[in-house]
Amino acid sequence: MTLRPILIHPDPRLKTVADPVASITDEIRRLADDMLETMYDAPGIGLAAPQIGQMSRLLVMDATKEDEGAPRPMVLVNPTVTWASEARSVYEEGCLSIPEQFAEVERPAKVEVQWLGLDGKTHAERFEGLWATCVQHEIDHLDGKLFIDYLKPMKRQMITRKMVKLKRERARG
Ligand SMILES: [Zn+2]
């Protein structure tokens, strides 16, 4: 397994719609392994392939809370939301591609998602709580959408300016 560098906003790849995965190959399995390792190392609760510059519809997540015991690493290939609750919930979201910036985002409180597993089978599950927010945030990444796109333009521009500055500082080393 290899840690992959995470792209920081703004980056055109984070605004691009990712391509469906045609089939589960060893390359896809390796990519999923690398993404899980990169996510846990960050640390984060979700990571989508475009965040490491791979334009494939693949995400990994584990929104298990520390006091809930064993981790539950999940790999979702070609995920789609098949149902969303009318009830909505608000979470303070962050993103590994937008370090140290957090903002409240409102989304459906529960969603049903269907995806292809690394076992080549179709899976479906209903998510709620932090899992529901996480899976929607990550699927957004596959559609070139970031959580700051839900914010008012002023706030979004302020965060983007901070990220431009951060990238400049990191490039200088
Ligand atoms: Zn994110």
Describe the protein's architecture and organization.
The strands form two sheets. The protein has a five-stranded antiparallel beta sheet. A two-stranded antiparallel ribbon has the order 4-5. It has one domain (12-171): Peptide deformylase (Peptide Deformylase), CATH 3.90.45. It starts with 25 loop residues before the first helix and ends with a helix. 29% of the residues lie in helices and 29% in strands. It is built from three helices and seven strands; from the N terminus they run H-E-E-E-E-E-E-E-H-H. The radius of gyration is 16 Å and the shape is globular. The longest helix is centred in the last third of the chain and has 20 residues, at 153-172. It has 173 residues and is of the alpha+beta class. Zinc ion binds at residues 95-97, 137, 141. Zinc ion is lined by residues 95-97, 137, 141.
Count of DSSP E strands?
7
CATH architecture descriptor: Alpha-Beta Complex
Fraction of residues in H or I helices: 25-40%
Q: How many individual domains?
A: 1
| Widest sheet, order of strands | 1-2-3-6-7
CATH topology: Peptide Deformylase
> What is the name of the CATH class?
Alpha Beta
Radius of gyration: 16 Å
CATH homologous superfamily title: Peptide deformylase
Mean pLDDT: 97
Shape: globular
Low-pLDDT stretches: none
**Secondary-structure-derived class:** alpha+beta
- List of distinct ligands in this structure: zinc ion
